[in-house]
Design a protein that fits this description.
This protein is α/β, with parallel strands linked by helices. It is about 40% helix and about 15% strand. The protein is built from 13 helices and 14 strands. Strand 2, helix 4 and strand 3 form a beta-alpha-beta unit. Helix 2 packs parallel to helix 9 and helix 10 packs across helix 13. The chain is globular and about 70 Å long. About 50% of the residues are buried. It binds pyridoxal-5'-phosphate.
């Protein structure tokens, strides 16, 4: 992703407003936290990672949290922890980032894609999840699209009835809630991402949360080669040797990113609230105007993390022309996401694909507009003006 910063605009370019899709706020507190971690001389997983995990678990009201190297490694460990493996089918929405599907393939299981609800709600359709269940199904990986909670209670009830594990891909949903309870803490394991464009950016990084002690122990082992003690513990004199009891990975997070994460975690509520105000401004100006629809107008029981500002273009409006028109005005847009079942690797490997009529109808019409906490109302107005012009 290229981020066009206003400062990088050549001086002779017209004074149009360059609005990136996403942007990171860098200030002294972030720089200092990173510098302190660097100067500490302990760069791998250590006390800052532990502090970050404890603060994250407390913020989510989860029993245990494990920091990892990415959201993708979090999903991989979650699937292994709940026991997904060869011969299993795992259900997930196709309108999703590819990470969950890739990790399902990596554990030897088969991703089975389900449909979404419609232009008003881009989350999974519980009835289609139920229709996708077979005797081979072992788990459901749910997504809280754009930070809007999916119907997680109905999913838990369905999973319970069929004896399935539930993993929450909560990469969009940092700080989101459903009936007051934090997204990521409903299922067996919740997975978060700290990628540069997420609500809590550290560059790369991720977190797993769980309330289940047995799953926690498996995640702890698998994160670090299946070794029974950590370098940090041995350095502190807490342990002298170790055993290897599982075939694990190195999915650890480092101290510099944990230090940045601690600062970002403190800012998360304020940043999510700022995102919410900007989305409201988009919604007031765009929902129902020039045939544009903005999904998730009714939040119901969900308190969104407002990760994305997604619109659905009117039928027949060329998305390509729309995005090009905005790019010509200096406004960066994106698509979250091309459906996974449309990618070559999945068309070939997935065998007989279930029909996904709603995804096929809605996905070609979605566009993500710029959204980041320090975006200004004037930035939103500039995007709205360009969007209305391009859609009509
Ligand atoms: C970003 C993202 C991931 C992957 O996270 P990484 O930290 O980039 O590995 C997984 N799922 C969704 C929905 C995401 O948006």
């Amino acid at each position: 992703m290229t981020i066009v910063r206003p400062a990088e605009r050549p001086a002779n370019e017209p004074a149009r407003r360059a609005v990136p899709l996403s942007d990171i706020l860098i200030d002294e507190e972030i720089e200092q936290a990173a510098a302190e971690a660097v100067r500490s001389g302990w760069w791998s997983m250590g006390p800052r990672v532990k502090e970050f995990e404890e603060a994250f678990a407390a913020a989510c009201e989860a029993k245990t949290a494990f920091a990892v190297s990415s959201g993708t490694s979090a999903l991989h460990l979650a699937l292994l922890a709940v026991g997904c493996g060869p011969g299993d089918e795992v259900i997930l929405p196709s309108l999703n980032f590819v990470a969950a599907a890739n990790t399902i393939v990596h554990v030897g299981a088969r991703p089975v894609f389900c449909d979404i609800r419609g232009t008003h709600d881009l989350n999974l359709d519980i009835h289609d999840v139920e229709a996708a269940i077979t005797p081979a199904t072992s788990a459901i990986v749910v997504l809280h699209y754009g930070g809007h909670a999916c119907d997680i209670e109905a999913i838990l009830e369905l999973a319970d009835r069929h004896g399935l594990a539930v993993i929450e891909d909560a990469a969009h949903a940092l700080g989101a809630r459903w009936k007051g309870k934090t997204c990521g803490t409903f299922g067996d394991v919740g997975c978060f991402s700290f990628f540069a464009n997420k609500n809590l950016p550290t560059g790369e990084g991720g977190m797993l949360v769980t309330n289940d002690d047995a799953l926690a122990e498996r995640i702890r082992l698998l994160r670090s080669h299946g070794m029974t003690t950590l370098t940090w513990d041995r350095d502190r004199g807490h342990a002298h040797s170790y055993d290897v009891v599982e075939h694990g990975f190195n999915y650890r997070l480092d101290e510099v990113r944990a230090a940045i994460g601690l600062v970002q975690l403190r800012r998360l509520p304020e940043h999510n609230a700022a995102r919410g105000r900007l989305v409201e401004q988009y919604r007031t100006a765009l929902d129902g105007a020039a045939g544009i629809e903005m999904p998730f107008s009714s939040n119901g029981a969900s308190e969104s993390a407002h990760h994305l500002a997604v619109i659905v273009l009117p039928e027949g409006c060329s998305r390509r022309a729309f995005q090009e028109a905005l790019a010509d005005s200096g406004i960066q847009t994106s698509v979250h996401y091309p459906p996974i079942h449309s990618f070559s690797a999945y068309r070939a490997s997935n065998g007989a694909q279930r029909p996904l009529p709603v995804t096929d109808l809605v996905a070609p019409r979605i566009v993500s507009l710029p959204l980041y906490p320090h975006m200004t109302p004037a930035d939103v107005s500039a995007v709205v003006g360009a969007a209305l012009l391009a859609a009509s």
